[in-house]
Amino acid sequence: MLANPPDGPEAPQSSAPRSRGGWGAADGPLAIRKPYALFLGDVHDARMAKTASGIHFWRPDDCIAQVRLPGCRADLGLPDVSAVEAAGLGAQTLVIGLAPPGGGVPDTWIPELVAALAAGLDIASGMHARVADRAAVGAAMRARGTRVLDVRRAPADLPVATGRKRTGKRLLTVGTDCGVGKMFAALALERELLRRGCRADFRATGQTGILIAGDGICIDAVVADFAAGAAEVLSPDNSPDHWDVIEGQGSLLHPSYAGVTLSLLHGSQPDHLVVCHDASREYMVGVDGYRTPTLEECIEANLRAGRLVNRGINVVGLCVNTSSMPEPEARRYLDAAARRLGLPACDPVRTGVAAIVDSLDV
Amino acid sequence: MLANPPDGPEAPQSSAPRSRGGWGAADGPLAIRKPYALFLGDVHDARMAKTASGIHFWRPDDCIAQVRLPGCRADLGLPDVSAVEAAGLGAQTLVIGLAPPGGGVPDTWIPELVAALAAGLDIASGMHARVADRAAVGAAMRARGTRVLDVRRAPADLPVATGRKRTGKRLLTVGTDCGVGKMFAALALERELLRRGCRADFRATGQTGILIAGDGICIDAVVADFAAGAAEVLSPDNSPDHWDVIEGQGSLLHPSYAGVTLSLLHGSQPDHLVVCHDASREYMVGVDGYRTPTLEECIEANLRAGRLVNRGINVVGLCVNTSSMPEPEARRYLDAAARRLGLPACDPVRTGVAAIVDSLDV
Q1: Where are the domains of chain A?
Q2: Do B227 and A259 touch (CB under 8 A)?
Q3: Which among A255, A259, A305 has CB closest to B224?
Q4: What ipTM was estimated for this complex?
């Protein structure tokens, strides 16, 4: 969904301090320093810069420049600078939000990455390949004392979950499948809460979300025994009027990932769920022959499991990706779902999520 | 329960080849070579040798000697030998099945461990501390080319679960809480199946089970994204008359570990469940104020979740730890549970599990 984001209001920035330092990643503290320069490399197709465009869409004030190499076809409309110039402008981190073909780090990138580290920038990467494993990159990092942060790696020393009730309000996005807009919905809800003057924080649980937020825990990379504990750490005690809007992962009804989803549900102990769905998704992704569950099945499974840690859990809205439908059909789909389930039904891209926030006690 | 095991028939050995080699641990192949010499160290209390006594109880034919240091108060009744003598008797692995106070590797053990590795024995350890991190141990291992296998570490390169239906029969033990006898029940069921001439394999998912079986995957040490995939690898396609009896972990209704349990349930895609319970357990372990679920709640949660990957899943029996009760009360408890739920109800230690196997289509 991030490839073609809607025009939205400029995002108000989050109310809580971003540097929590409550846990340490293997490479050092997890908090990614802002502002960012976004590295677009030499990707030949703008769609490969989907993560970078998502960061820019959701955190425009955190992005002060883009760093492009010759041949780059992606363009976020930010000032074009070198990594060294970005450091001069005050950037703290060069963010690699790219998925080049093959998943490796192209040789053509190395000189600019080395220059960035030497100029005092950290590098944050959501790539599969470990950027710091490239010898010149590792050497530059050690020479200057800068960091290469791999947001796919989970922090060490996470605790086992306690199930203890925490203070503050929590909303978790859940879904009928993977890739149905749980991150987008959570960010849209955070933005709408902040617009209304509420105190709210998006809590990131996947690599793109972490790059957007500047911190978080890649929940599916945590050792299984500590996955629910990671979700507890991610969303600590807070003041009674504060909202944590937690990015969901996977689906309780997906045979590959349901354990991750359940750990996140239990560790988050949400008061409210928003259920995400893709209206065109007949079968779940990555597995053969598993039909996408209905919204009703998804709601029932999540409420049943979530009650273990929060008796008062409820569903407050539906976020449906209707991008496969023309406008009138999408409206009919949303209206029918809303009537059937007695819940506000939005498409975050098409309609925004104000109707869901209207139903919250904010 | 292993601290005081009942006298049982000598265990028939498993029917399937133990060396599968389908995945590799970080330290090399996971398969632990048998037969074992059991290292009892210098523990002052026989209860610290609980894992070793479990290995001896369940796999007596795999244990040819015990290696004790001066001051040791544990005794399994095996021939007392040095590590070097154990190698001469044909032992392949020195197994450390101990939990000494503090969890570290005492200095007093090092000379014997070094001698074992130098004599050609592998070492297999279920301790929290990493034995190979002791410099003299690591050096001896590298000098002779022997291995120190840490059964708490998960193999690398596990796949994401596919949800694909596999051939062969699968039975999983599940429970109302952690530590209610799921491993003991699975081993008792394997033993009873083998006694009746069935083809059966205990599939180990925790460190003690892995030392008993000689292989397996410590499921709670797997990165969350791959936990269900690990369970699929653990229990591959098999012939239609073959039973995998899979060791359960945690509980679907435990707020710390339910995600691990769900991954194991989905990856195992069991045809049959045996539900384990401790009759004296009012609150779940490790968390405050969470009541142990009833057998009915546990059954409902497991059947509901298990149907996603196996529509025909059913519960075939109850294994209840009644060690807190005198005999007449235990019998009344089991009879009442059997009547209420319409299922055979056993205490594997007190009654054995024949009544459950009677109900299977073997």
Answers
A1: 33-150, 169-358
A2: yes
A3: A259
A4: 0.89
Q: Which amino acid is at A244?
A: D
Phi, psi of B222 (to 5 degrees): -80, 145
Measured between CA atoms, the residue of chain A closest to residue B300 is A304
User: Tell me, what amino acid is at B142?
Assistant: R
Cβ atoms of residues A65 and A89 within 8 Å? yes
- Reported as a single tens digit per residue, the pLDDT across A196-206 is 999 999 999 99
The 3-state secondary structure of A157-207 reads CCCCCCCCCCCCEEEEEEECCCCCCHHHHHHHHHHHHHHCCCEEEEECCCH
Torsional class of A45: left (φ above 0), alpha (ψ -120 to 50), beta (otherwise): beta
Indicate the residue of A225, A261, A264 with minimum beta-carbon distance to B260.
A225
Classify A286 as helix, strand or coil: coil
Going by C-beta distance under 8 Å and a sequence separation of 6 or more, which residues neighbour residue A351?
Answer: A334
Classify domain B169-358 at the CATH superfamily level.
Answer: P-loop containing nucleotide triphosphate hydrolases (3.40.50.300)
Distance from C-alpha of B18 to C-alpha of B351, rounded to nearest angstrom: 29
Distances (CA, A) of B12 to A101, B15, B60, B187, B188: 54, 9, 10, 12, 12
The predicted model scores a pTM of 0.91
Closest approach of chain B CAs to the CA of A100, in angstroms? 22
Q: Is-same-fold flag (A33-150; A169-358)? A: yes
User: Contact, A178 vs A286, CB < 8 A?
Assistant: yes
CA nearest B55: which of B144, B124, B102, B103?
B124
Predicted confidence (pLDDT) per residue in A294-348, tens digit: 999 999 999 999 999 999 999 999 999 999 999 999 999 999 999 999 999 999 9
Of A123, A147, A144, residue with least CA distance to A39: A123
* Angstrom distance (rounded) from CA B70 to CA B155: 36
- Superfamily of domain A33-150 in CATH is NAD(P)-binding Rossmann-like Domain (3.40.50.720)
